[in-house]
Amino acid sequence: MTASSHATRAHSFNAAAAQYAANRPAYPPALFDVVEDLAGHPLTGARVADIGAGTGIATALLHARGADVIAVEPGDGMAAQFRRAHPDLPIVRGDGNALPLTTDSVDFVTCAQAWHWIDPAQALPEAVRVLRPGGALALWWNTDALDVPWIAEAADRTGRFFGVDVATEKRNVNARLADPTGSLDFTHRVVRWSRRIPVDTHLANIGSHSIFLVHGEETSTAFLAEERKHLLRTFPDGIVEEVYDVILLLATTP
User: Fold this and answer.
1) Per-residue confidence at 4, pLDDT binned at 50, 70, 90?
2) What's the CATH number where 113 sits?
3) Helical residues (DSSP H) of the chain, grouped into ranges
4) Which helix (H) or strand (E) holds 73?
5) What is the model's pLDDT at position 11?
6) What's residue 210's pLDDT?
7) Residue 70 falls within a domain, yes or no?
8) pLDDT per residue as tens digits for the range 64-98
9) Count of domains observed in the chain
10) What is the domain extent for residue 85?
11) Cα–Cα distance between 240 and 236 in angstroms, integer?
12) Residue 81 belongs to a domain
C-alpha cells in the first residue's frame, strides 16, 4: 500500500463515522481480563489513554471497567460522533505519533483497531513517554475467525473482488507491526468471541471498512448486494453469527 493510499484509507472513516459507530463490533469482557492479567494491575482506577479512539467503542468499555480514561482522536468525523455518543467522556484531538499528554501521566496506553494507521517509529516512543514506570501498552484488533467456513468463504470473495489477501493481513498483526525495532517485549494473546446480528447489520459493518469506503458507493453497493445473497443461503433466518479472534499485543515498560 502506498503512503497516499494508506492515508486515504485512514481518513475514510470520518465520512462514515455514524455507520461505523452503529454497526462495528465491540470487544468481549474476556479481553479486558487478559489485559489486566498481562499488565499485572487492574483497569479499575487506572489512568488510561485510548489512542485512535474513533467513535469510542473501546473507550466506553474501558470507562465501564472503571478506568479513568481519556480518548485521543485525530479525525473530525470520528471525534464528532464520539462526542455525540459519549458526551461525558473526555476526548482530545491528536494522534499516536504526537500525543497531547504529559510525560509519565498514564498507567495504560490502549489502541483498538488503529495502530496500523499510525507510524510505530513515532508512536512507540510516544507511548513509552506518557506511560508511568510499569505501565502497559495494549494494542488489539478484532479479526475474522478464518477457520469458520462461511467466514473464510466471505473473506475469499472480498479478497478476489478488491485484490487483497485477508489471511495475510491477519498474519501481519504481530509484534513486528507493533514495534519494528523490537525495543519492547510484546506478549501475544488471542481471545475468541462472537455476536449474532441481522444480515443487514453485518453488511453495514463490513461496508464501514476502509477497503469499501475508498472504492466508492457504487462499487461497494454492488458487492454488498451480491454478498447478501450468499449470506442468506448460509443464514436463511437472516441472523448472522460473526466470529472474531481479538488479537492482543501487550508490553510493559520498565
Assistant:
1) very low
2) 3.40.50.150
3) 3-11, 17-23, 29-39, 57-64, 76-85, 120-130, 149-162, 166-171, 175-178, 199-207, 210-213, 217-234
4) strand 68-73
5) 60
6) 78
7) yes
8) 999 999 999 999 999 999 999 999 999 999 999 99
9) 1
10) 3-144+166-195+242-252
11) 9
12) yes
